[in-house]
Each structure stands twice: as C-alpha cells, then as structure tokens.
Design a protein that fits this description.
Helix content: over 70%
Number of helices: 6
Strand content: under 5%
Number of domains: 1
Distance between the termini: 40 Å
Number of strands: 0
Mean pLDDT: 84
Structural class: mainly alpha
Length: 180
C-alpha cells in the first residue's frame, strides 16, 4: 500500500540543494581557516534557496541537517554557521517576510548578537583576539569585552541588512529566471 507524501518532493529537493551548498561551504571553511567567516556567510546563501519559495519548514530541516552533519565532521567549528549564518539567516528572512516591525526586531538582534558573542568569545574561544599587538592590552578585560561586544553588535546589524539585501537580490533573479 502506497502512503501519500505530505511534503511536495520539489520542496524537499530545493531544501536538499540548499543544504548541500551550505554544507560544502561550511566544510571548506573548516579546512581553509583564513576564510572561515567569508565561507560561512556564503553558506548562508544555501539556506536562502528554500526561503525564496517560502518553504520555511523545509529550510529549518535543511539547517538542522547541515548542523548535524557539520558537527559530525567539524566538531565545534560548526558554531559560527549554527549560531550566525544559518539560524540567524532563516530567522531574519522569516521576520522580513512576515513584516515584523523594526522596533520589535532590533532588540532581538541586539540580545541575540550579545549571546552569540558571549558563546563564541567567552565560552568556546572560537573568536580569538591577540591583544599583545595592540595598545589596548593594558585595559581591563571587562572593558575590552564590552567594546568588542558593541563592535560585534554593529557588525551583526550590518550583516542583517546585507542578508536581507542578498535575499531580495537572489529572489528577484530567480523569479526573473523562472518567468522566462
């Protein structure tokens, strides 16, 4: 007896393609340490594929698959993708599509980016800054942490706008290609 699929195979295929793109760039970022940030940002584009068609559930499943396989292959180095370029990209685009107001969303961005900074800098030491080559090495650790957290929040907000711009750009290009 054949059981009917509850999810359209096209949705699954698009999410799988997005997951494959993301996973490839996450793995390359693990092997090419000098370009980790850039490659993780490019990996976010893979998460955008199902989101362009408004396949939110499939996008979350693709994200979970990338994080699971990435964690098995790269261990703790999956965290930048898991916390920033993967999860945040999905949330930002869903909030953008649902037209969540800025006064609601920006406090969430600030709180989330502070949490991410704390995890990457204080807990896991994935974000390392060599203070010996700067003039701020003799400042208090708390002051340095606060300054870099503020810088991280500003960069995170810039990242938010760049993700939305990239999403709109890719979406318009794919919609133009589909109409031809």
């Amino acid at each position: 007896m054949r059981v009917p699929l509850k999810t359209d195979p096209k949705k699954i295929a698009l999410a799988a393609m997005g997951a494959a793109i993301s996973l490839i760039f996450v793995l390359i970022s693990f092997w090419v340490q000098k370009m980790t940030l850039s490659l993780n940002v490019i990996a976010a584009c893979g998460m955008m594929l199902p989101l362009i068609k408004k396949y939110y559930r499939e996008s979350i499943i693709a994200y979970a698959v990338v994080v699971l396989i990435g964690a098995l292959l790269t261990n703790i180095h999956i965290l930048p993708f898991a916390l920033v370029t993967g999860a945040y990209t999905i949330a930002a685009i869903i909030f953008h599509e649902k037209k969540v107001k800025a006064y609601v969303f920006f406090p969430i961005i600030i709180i989330y980016s502070s949490l991410v900074f704390y995890i990457l800098y204080a807990l896991t030491k994935l974000l390392i800054i060599d203070f010996s080559k700067t003039n701020i090495a003799n400042l208090s650790t708390t002051f340095i942490y606060i300054i870099f957290n503020i810088i991280f929040i500003i960069v995170f907000i810039i990242y938010h706008f760049s993700i939305i711009y990239t999403y709109k750009f890719i979406s318009s290009r794919l919609n133009t290609a589909n109409s031809n």
